[in-house]
Design goal:
Pathway: Carbohydrate biosynthesis; gluconeogenesis
Structural class: alpha+beta
EC number: 4.1.1.32
Distance between the termini: 69 Å
Family: Belongs to the phosphoenolpyruvate carboxykinase [GTP] family.
Number of strands: 32
Mean pLDDT: 96
Bound molecules: phosphoenolpyruvate, manganese (II) ion, sodium ion
Radius of gyration: 24 Å
Helix content: 25-40%
Number of helices: 16
InterPro entries: PEP_carboxykinase_C, PEP_carboxykinase_GTP, PEP_carboxykinase_GTP_C, PEP_carboxykinase_GTP_N, PEP_carboxykinase_N
Strand content: 15-25%
Keywords: Cytoplasm, Decarboxylase, Gluconeogenesis, GTP-binding, Lyase, Manganese, Metal-binding, Nucleotide-binding
Shape: globular
Low-confidence stretches: none
Length: about 600
C-alpha cells in the first residue's frame, strides 16, 4: 500500500508524545473485532452476553463518573475567540495544546495505540470525509467499527496524500509495568478535555471513554469539525435524522429533522406509521450531511454506519425497529444484566426479573431496590444495516434529495403541533429559536429547565453561532430557491391544562408527516397565521385516532399572549448573541411581533 507521509509523520509525533507500548493498525476485519472483544472479556472489561439471546453482543459498565458527554469540558479552540462565539467554551489553541501535551505525555504507557482509519459516509461518496483516530481504547475501536466504516478500504481511498481529520484520543490512564487495568479506565472530570482545533481540522480528546467524548467520528468530527468544513465549503453538517416516507400510491419523499437530544429523534427516524398504507424507512437517526447536487437539489447522506441510542425507554412499543436492530452484534453500555446473560433496562416494556446486576455491577432485586438498574443514559451501539426498515438507498453515495426539513422542540405550551415557514429565511428563524428541556444525555444540574438550542446544534456548532445561522441564510440564497426543502416546526410535547400530553406521538407522528408531504407536493390545506402556515382544521388526518376536535384545536392553537411572551424570550435569547446576529433574523423577529400585535 502507498505510504501517506503526513499520516505517518503524525502517528510518529503522537507516539513520541503518548509513548504507547505498541502501535496497531486496525484492518476492520471480523477476526480483529473478535480478538479485541476476547481480550476485553479476559481483562474483565466486557461481558459476553448469552449468544443464544444476543449473538455477538457485549456489555460494558463505565466508571460511574463517565456516563455522558461533558459540555463543560468540551472546548472549541479556534485561533480567535470570537470565532468560537458566545455559546462555546473557548481556550487559546496554543495554551490548550500546551496543557494537553502535558497530559498526553506518556498517557499511553503500558497500552496499545490503535490506528483507526475511518470514513464518515459511504466510502468514496463525494459527500463523505475521512478521519483517522488514534486511541488507546479497544472499546473505542469496536464501537467505531459499528458507528463508521473503518479499516483497510478507507486507507486505500485515502491514498498517499488524501485529506483526513486528525482525531487523537486517550483514556488518560497510563499503566506501570505489570499493573492491572481498571474495568473502565478514565481520568477524573477536571482532567477530561474534549478539544477541537477547527483551524487545524484536529480533535484532541483526553480522559473519557464515553461515546460522544471518545468515538470521535460522531459529535466531534461529524458535527463540530464538519460544521466548520461545511461553512468553508458551502454545505451543511447537521444534527438531523433522515427518513423516507412513502404514501399508499408509492410516492416517496425524504425528510430530515433536527431535534434536541432525548426528544425521540431515533424513535421518529424508524417509526411505524399508524396510517394504513404508509411506509417510513430510515436513512439516519442522528446526523445529516447535506450538499447541493448537480440537479440543484439539497442531497443528504448519513455519515454514520450505526446507531448509538439511549436504551432506557426503548421497547417494542416505543421503538419496535430499534429493538429489532439490537438483537445481535450490539454493544451495550451501562444497562442491567439478567441472570441468563441478557440485558434489561427501565422502560424495556416488561417487568424486571427478580434479580439483576445493575449498571454499577451490584446485585439488584426487584423486591427491595429503588435504584435504577440501568443508567438513564445507558446506550446501545448497533449496525444501521440491522434495522428492519433501513432504506435500501441508505448508502447511496449520491445521497437522498431532501424535500422537507423538520425542526422540533420540546415545549409544553405555546408552540403548536406543526407550523410551516413562509420561506427559507423564516424557517431559519424557526430553527434558530428551537428550545427544549435539558435531558440526561448531558451531565448538568439543570435537568428539566428549558434552553434554546438552535437547530439542536447548540453543543455541536464548531464555530460562532451567529456565523452558523448566517450560513443557513446563505445556503438559502440560491438561484433555484424553488428547489430548496420546505421548513416545518413540530412540537410533539404540547400539554393540556392538567399537564397531560395532547398528542399521542410515536406512530401517529406520521399523520403530521402526511400533511408535510402534502404541502411539499403543492397540496395540503393551510391557513396563514402570524407564526406561519398551519393546517386548516381538518387537514391533519385523524382517522382512527382517539382525539377530540377540541384537543386538535388546542394542539394547533396560537395564543397571542403566550406568543408575545415568546417573542420577549427570543429577544432576550438573541441579545446573548450580541451584534453578530444576522440582520435577517432580527427582521424576522420584528416582523413576527408586528404580525402578532395586529392579530
Ligand atoms: C452521545 O452522547 O454520545 C450522543 C450520541 O448523544 P445524543 O444522544 O445526544 O446524540
Ligand atoms: Mn444526537
Ligand atoms: Na449524550
Amino acid at each position: 500500500m502507498m505510504v501517506h507521509k503526513k499520516l505517518q509523520a503524525w502517528i510518529e509525533e503522537v507516539a513520541t508524545m503518548c509513548q504507547p507500548d505498541q502501535i496497531y493498525w486496525c484492518d476492520g476485519s471480523q477476526e480483529e473485532n473478535d480478538r479485541l472483544f476476547q481480550e476485553m472479556v479476559n481483562k474483565g472489561q466486557a461481558i459476553r452476553l448469552n449468544p443464544e439471546k444476543r449473538p455477538g453482543s457485549y456489555l460494558f459498565r463505565s466508571h460511574p463518573s463517565d456516563v455522558a458527554r461533558v459540555e463543560d469540558r468540551t472546548f472549541i479552540a479556534s485561533g480567535k475567540k470570537e470565532d468560537a462565539g458566545p455559546t462555546n467554551n473557548w481556550v487559546d489553541p496554543v495554551a490548550l495544546k500546551k496543557t494537553m501535551t502535558t497530559l498526553f505525555t506518556g498517557s499511553m504507557k503500558g497500552r496499545t495505540m490503535y490506528v483507526i482509519p475511518f470514513s464518515m459516509g459511504p466510502i468514496g461518496s463525494p459527500i463523505s470525509k475521512i478521519g483517522v483516530e488514534l486511541t488507546d481504547s479497544p472499546y473505542v475501536v469496536v464501537n467505531m467499527r459499528i458507528m463508521t466504516r473503518i479499516g483497510t478500504a478507507v486507507l486505500e481511498t485515502l491514498g498517499a496524500d488524501g485529506e483526513f481529520v486528525k482525531c487523537l484520543h486517550s483514556v488518560g490512564v497510563p499503566l506501570k509495568d505489570g499493573e492491572t487495568d481498571a474495568a473502565w479506565p478514565c481520568a477524573p472530570i477536571e482532567e477530561k478535555y474534549i478539544s477541537h482545533f477547527p483551524d487545524q481540522r484536529t480533535i484532541w480528546s483526553y480522559g473519557s471513554g464515553y461515546g460522544g467524548n471518545a468515538l470521535l467520528g460522531k459529535k466531534c468530527f461529524a458535527l463540530r469539525i464538519a460544521s466548520v468544513q461545511a461553512r468553508d465549503e458551502g454545505w451543511m453538517a447537521e444534527h438531523m435524522l433522515i427518513l423516507s416516507i412513502t404514501d399508499p400510491q408509492g410516492n416517496k419523499k425524504y425528510v430530515t429533522g433536527a431535534f434536541p437530544s432525548a426528544t425521540g429523534k431515533t424513535n421518529l427516524a424508524m417509526h411505524i406509521p399508524s396510517l394504513p398504507g404508509w411506509k417510513v424507512e430510515t436513512v439516519g437517526d442522528d446526523i445529516a450531511w447535506m450538499k447541493f447536487g448537480e440537479d440543484g437539489r439539497l442531497r443528504a447522506i448519513n455519515p454514520e454506519a450505526g446507531f448509538f441510542g439511549v436504551a432506557p425507554g426503548t421497547s417494542l412499543e416505543s421503538n419496535y425497529n430499534a429493538m429489532r436492530s439490537i438483537e445481535k452484534n450490539t454493544i451495550f453500555t451501562n444497562v442491567a444484566l439478567t441472570d441468563d446473560g441478557d440485558v434489561w433496562w427501565e422502560g424495556i416494556g416488561y417487568d424486571a426479573p427478580e434479580h439483576l446486576i445493575d449498571w454499577k455491577g451490584n446485585d439488584w432485586t426487584a423486591a427491595d431496590s429503588n435504584a435504577l438498574a440501568a443508567h438513564p443514559n445507558a446506550r446501545f451501539t448497533a449496525p444501521a444495516g440491522q434495522c428492519p426498515v433501513i432504506a435500501p438507498e441508505w448508502e447511496d453515495p449520491a445521497g437522498v434529495p431532501v424535500d422537507a426539513i423538520l425542526v422540533g422542540g420540546r415545549r409544553p405550551n405555546t408552540i403548536p403541533l406543526i407550523h410551516e415557514s413562509f420561506d427559507w429565511d423564516h424557517g431559519v428563524f424557526m430553527g434558530s429559536t428551537l428550545s427544549s428541556e435539558i435531558t440526561a444525555a448531558t451531565i448538568s444540574n439543570d435537568i428539566g429547565q428549558v434552553r434554546y438550542d438552535p437547530f439542536a446544534m447548540l453543543p455541536f456548532i464548531g464555530y460562532n453561532v451567529c456565523d452558523y445561522l448566517q450560513h443557513w441564510i446563505d445556503i438559502g440564497a440560491q438561484p433555484e430557491a424553488d428547489k430548496l426543502p420546505k421548513i416545518f416546526y413540530v412540537n410533539w410535547f404540547r400539554k393540556d391544562e392538567s399537564g397531560k400530553w395532547l398528542w399521542p406521538g410515536y406512530g401517529d407522528n406520521s399523520r403530521v408527516l402526511k400533511w408535510v408531504i402534502e404541502r411539499v407536493s403543492g397540496q395540503g390545506a393551510a391557513v396563514k397565521t402570524p407564526i406561519g402556515y398551519m393546517p386548516s382544521p381538518d387537514a391533519i388526518d385523524t382517522d382512527g385516532l382517539d382525539i377530540s376536535a377540541a384537543e386538535m384545536k388546542a394542539l394547533l392553537y396560537v395564543d397571542k399572549k403566550l406568543w408575545l411572551q415568546n417573542v420577549d424570550l427570543i429577544k432576550a435569547y438573541y441579545a446573548g448573541f450580541g451584534d453578530r446576529l444576522p440582520q435577517s433574523l432580527r427582521l424576522q423577529l420584528e416582523a413576527l411581533e408586528q404580525r402578532l400585535t395586529a392579530l
